[in-house]
Write a structure and sequence with these properties.
This protein has helices spanning 14-21, 34-40, 42-50, 65-76, 91-104, 125-131, 138-151, 161-171, 198-203, 213-216, 221-233, and strands at residues 6-8, 29-33, 54-61, 82-86, 113-117, 156-158, 176-179, 208-211. It is α/β, with parallel strands linked by helices. The chain binds orotidine-5'-monophosphate (OMP). Homodimer.
Length: 235
């Protein structure tokens, strides 16, 4: 797994995916999420992988432990690099996910890294408190989810850049902080609430950034990707 910005391939079908990917002449780190997977199924994962890209399969599993374990066992066979579940599913569910992933990983292949979503980057503290009835600050809720994720043996979490530094302090450098909600300065925020720039993410403790619309909606996606990458990698 490399540390390039992860491009979210949030497209409705395979045609748009390859129109987009064909603009690039280098291997990328891409994310296949619900929108695309629900339309194209596992075949899209195989086809994107054939082109040599690293893949984050973002299906955010959240169900009873046995169901998540079995689903992960199946997903493991796709040979992706990174997969996720919702930490709100609990420790037993996350342990089940890890067991399924280990059981399904083909002999001689590296198991995908497994991370858990803490609080979605589209959620504000007020929404969390009112709608989920969690009587904590958003940071404390995210830190709590990060600590139970670590307890379950997972490799890291999905969080916003705003919580990444605190998670690093509590859970250690090796524990991944994968941060979506990335925008270029002055860019449209859409439905995201806890946002940051690529250089802000680097300074504030992200391990990996996920960038969708700031690249995929750009007039020149290759140029937008280059800007994001330079800001992210700047020394
Ligand atoms: O798990 C994720 O990838 C995820 C978690 C989260 O808290 N927030 C979040 O935006 N994401 C995903 O990251 C991507 C962000 O896309 P943009 O907002 O277009 O950059 C989308 O594909 C989301 O599904």
């Amino acid at each position: 797994m490399n540390n390039k910005p992860i491009i979210a391939l949030d497209f409705p079908s395979e045609v748009e995916v390859f129109n987009f990917l064909n603009k690039f002449s280098e291997p990328l780190f891409v994310k296949i999420g619900m929108e695309l997977y629900m339309q194209e199924g596992p075949d899209i994962v195989r086809k994107v992988k054939e082109q040599g890209h690293d893949i984050f399969l973002d299906l955010k599993l959240h169900d009873i432990p046995n169901t998540v374990k079995s689903a992960m066992k199946g997903l493991a066979k796709l040979g992706v690099d990174l997969v996720n579940v919702h930490a709100a599913g609990g420790i037993n569910m996350m342990e089940g996910a890890l067991e399924g992933l280990e059981a399904g990983t083909l002999a001689g292949k590296k198991r995908a890294a497994l991370i858990a979503v803490t609080q979605l980057t589209s959620t504000t503290e007020q929404q969390m408190q009112n709608e989920q009835k969690i009587n904590l600050s958003l940071l404390d809720s995210v830190l709590h989810y990060a600590s139970i994720t670590k307890q379950a043996g997972l490799d890291g979490v999905v969080c916003s850049v705003h919580e990444a530094g605190a998670i690093r302090e509590v859970c250690g450098e090796e524990f991944l902080r994968v941060t979506p909600g990335i925008r270029l300065a002055g860019g449209e925020t859409h439905d995201q609430k806890r946002i940051a720039t690529p250089d802000g993410a680097r300074k504030d403790g992200s391990s990996l950034i996920v960038v969708g619309r700031a690249i995929t909606n750009a007039e020149d996606p290759v140029a937008a990707y280059k800007i994001v990458r330079e800001l992210w990698e700047e020394q």
